[in-house]
Design goal:
Elements: H1 3-16, E1 27-32, H2 38-44, E2 46-51, H3 80-90, H4 96-108, H5 118-131, H6 138-145, H7 147-151, H8 154-173, E3 175-180, H9 186-191, E4 199-204, E5 214-216, E6 218-220, H10 227-235, E7 261-263, E8 271-276, E9 279-282, E10 285-291, H11 297-309, E11 313-316
Parallel strand pairs: 6-7, 10-11
Antiparallel strand pairs: 1-4, 2-3, 2-9, 3-8, 4-10, 5-8
Amino acid sequence: MNKQDRIRYLNKVIKEKDCFKYSGPTFLFKYRPFDEFAFPMLEKGNLFLCPAYKLDDETECMTSINIEEWYDLETNNLKRVALEQIIQMVKPYCSQEVYEEIRQIIYQVSDRRGQVRNSWLLDVFPDIQEKIPNYNIAPLFNYLTNIPSKLDDPSIKTQMEDLIIAGMRARNNMGICSLCENDDNEYMWKKYADNNSGYCIEYDMSDYLLNKSLFPVIYEDDRNINVVQNLVNNFIGQLVISFSGNQIQADISQYLRLFLTKYLKWEYQNEWRILGNPGEINSPRINKIIIGPNANEDNKKRIIDFCLKNKIEYQIKEN
């Protein structure tokens, strides 16, 4: 899945909620070393959800608050990041050519500081709407032009404070289990399967009971940890953190994307995540176990015996 596909999938999960039907990858993979947890985990049929603060990315679940990233406090003009938000929001609904034309239209109404007045933005609305006739962008523009007044609302400020507190707690209280889209990822074999001396489990996700808690990770150059932007995203009702009819609450499930966005340097992981409380959960059904070519003979034998006993396919990875 590319980035846009992953975002569409997240929107599908949130929109469908209780009637959600899993449509992600049939198989996902877990790379593991042969450590003291390897065989107990297999025998019990468990996965472990690690607290967010213990993961390899030190910025996991970090939050900040910065209203001035979005608009100028003195002039109430929207800043460049808000303009970029508009541009990115319309991108999935048009061709590359139309996208570039809309980009030019929006930047034509910004001043030398990269700011735009609400009235200017409304002036170009008809031109943009004409280029995307099948997508009603009026709500998007209405929300954006009301951002300054919304962020000045005392109740919104309280929500932002609650989100900061919830984000801090989430680093300890949110559990994450990472899975990979493919079994031939040499980076993963080296880093997470002890330089090819570990193993890789192929899980069948098609009928997994916790599929509603399974989400794709989004990889971006600039990982957003600003809860103000998350609130704005909620106002415009487009991004994946918009739950419960666009009502923000101090609940970690209400800004899901804080737990699903990583820097581009991690893109090689092709990651999907199971989210929940830290600790052990039942694993999906094991379809196959791939044994690293550098695994020692004792570990190879134990894995093969486990597979034969449980009628699980196995293979030895080639160098």
